[in-house]
Amino acid sequence: MNLAPAKTPTRRAFAGRMTERGETNKDFVVFESDLAKSTHSYLFKEKYPERYFNMGIAEIGTVSAAAGMAAEGRSVIVCGYGVFITMRAVEAIRSFICYPHLNVKFLSSHGGLTAAIDGVTHQSTEDIAFMTTIPQMKVLVPADTAAASAAFDIALDTPGPVFTRLMRDPMFELYDANEEFHLGGSKIVRKGKDVTIATYGDMVFQSLAAADELAKKGIDAEVIDFYSLKPWDQATLGESLKKTQALVVAENHQKRNGFGYEAAVWALQNAPVPTTLIGLEDTFAESGSYQKTLDKFGLSGAAIAEKAAATVAKKR
What we know:
- The chain is of the alpha/beta class.
- The chain folds into 2 domains: about 10-175, Thiamin diphosphate (ThDP)-binding fold, Pyr/PP domains (Rossmann fold, 3-Layer(aba) Sandwich); about 185-315, Rossmann fold (3-Layer(aba) Sandwich).
- Helices cover about 40% and strands about 20% of the residues.
- A 7-stranded mixed β-sheet has the order 3-2-4-5-7-6-12, with helices on both faces. A 5-stranded mixed β-sheet has the order 9-11-10-13-14, sandwiched between helices.
């Protein structure tokens, strides 16, 4: 499948839409933990400095202050790296934001191994497990800039806390600028009849590459982009599995407690089929180029294709 290379990363698209919405929505404010150039929240600061607060390198304080402002009636966008938001500040997110169901939204950059070159300390490979586990948190993972822009709108317009996982580097453009997205939705980006590949974020592109490889072997893969991970589109997965009778879940995350666990348990209870989960195998990754890191840890398109073919063979 030929896709146009993206010129900007999803973190930039999300922040750009945040700045655009700031013109018509005067209510929300933006909190930053001293990473404005990296999260691109500086775009909002330049236009609305009176609504922008740099709280320094203190994520738990940033989240706590955001909760305080949200408790007074404002929506707050908290920007930062996923590994710091979801680990340093997880107690504050749980108890101060999710428990009282406050309108705090998270711009979480450097999701998974898209931060490969920055090393393990900046690779957020446990964030989906943490954020999907906390009650009342919603979770979005856009694959391209159109989806990332739409994710900001969904986050701002959805009551309560919303976490959006974004990428470090530009990948590809998959969707038209006018494509519609909604909370709890998904997109079938390639139709097939032999195996369902459920995925999200940057792994959508690796899964599409895998589908191309599988086609050479006569295996017709269906690829579904679950851009909304909580809530997620169970109906679409169910309809796909009725047809394909085989499931592969590919994610740039620890295999343990990721979306794969959620989808596999659902399938076990509702549509039992041969299932393979692809993610980090209880290991940290390492610093290196993005594609080479995926290759080494079994997350590349080639690895997905190999495991998908083995999954298809189990149903015969």
